């Protein structure tokens, strides 16, 4: 029996799809199930029980003997939300509750952190745990994720196996419901589909050409492969980066999307909105040596390969994974 929080969301539902493909079907899906659009991600999935997010603590008290593993993917992920009370409740306090339940009931735990913890990357993108308290996230979402990482590292009592994963720029199927917070690939596809062209942000720095701002884009299928690896590995607890280790430009992403759609590339550039211009990241790239050092050796999708799979097998036919 495996708990997946955020089960109806983008990454949580993809993780369940992968678990089902590997014949793990006793899934306890935890979420706020009051959003019909999001619940479409779970259609056809093999799930043993759905548990409302607010009922999980009591459910674990009653059923902990059956639970083999917990993936805590659920969180408030809106980077434009500035009500810190929401993040304190959903991203920090809730995660602490789950951490302590996993200690009490000897359940191994993998939870989602975020590359948003790195802020502008002044200290680099190295998952050295000594550096985590020194990071300066740019928004309340990133702050909440970093707060929990710091708290987890400081605890004397920890689950017998645990890992926090700093997700970089994730894209892939099952993000139809995310609207503004969906990946750039998703927005690029829709923009190209409706207008035949793609608008990207101009560079406002002399050291970067327009559209050459870079991110570590990771396909969700690679992300869930790492989650499965850690579930089976169950040693070397700690906090790990989860990107590809190779930054790529937004121009590369745009061109890959046009190619996957069979269309000629037509990219124009618009000013980055002033309200986010001073907080805009021009480069992110995960140092992946730590995860590789504990034995993860599966190659990641290239940006071209991931975008092609996403566009042709999910976006064009409007399918879910």
Key traits:
alpha/beta, two-stranded parallel ribbon, 321 residues, globular
Structure description:
There is one protein chain. This protein has helices spanning 10-21, 36-39, 56-63, 84-104, 140-154, 184-195, 220-233, 250-261, 274-277, 289-293, 303-315; strands at 2-5, 27-31, 49-52, 69-72, 109-114, 162-167, 169-171, 198-201, 214-215, 217-219, 238-242, 248-249, 267-270. The protein is globular and about 55 Å long. The strands form four sheets. The chain has a seven-stranded parallel beta sheet, with helices on both faces. It is an alpha/beta fold and 321 residues long. The two termini are 21 Å apart. Strand 1, helix 1 and strand 2 form a beta-alpha-beta unit. 37% of the residues lie in helices and 16% in strands. The relative contact order is 0.14. Helix 8 crosses helix 11 (303-315). The model has no long low-confidence stretch (mean pLDDT 95).
Q: Order of strands across the widest beta sheet? A: 3-2-1-4-5-6-11
What's the rounded overall pLDDT mean?
95
Rough outline: globular
**End-to-end C-alpha gap:** 21 Å
**What are the low-pLDDT stretches, counting only 5+ consecutive residues below 50?**
none
Q: Give the C-alpha Rg.
A: 19 Å
Helix content: 25-40%
**SS element count, helices:** 11
Main sheet?
A: 7 strands, parallel
Oligomeric nature of the chains? single chain
Order of SSEs: EHEHEHEHEHEEHEEEHEEHEHHH
Name the beta content range: 15-25%
Going by helix content, strand content and strand pairing, the class is alpha/beta
Task: Please provide the count of β strands.
Answer: 13
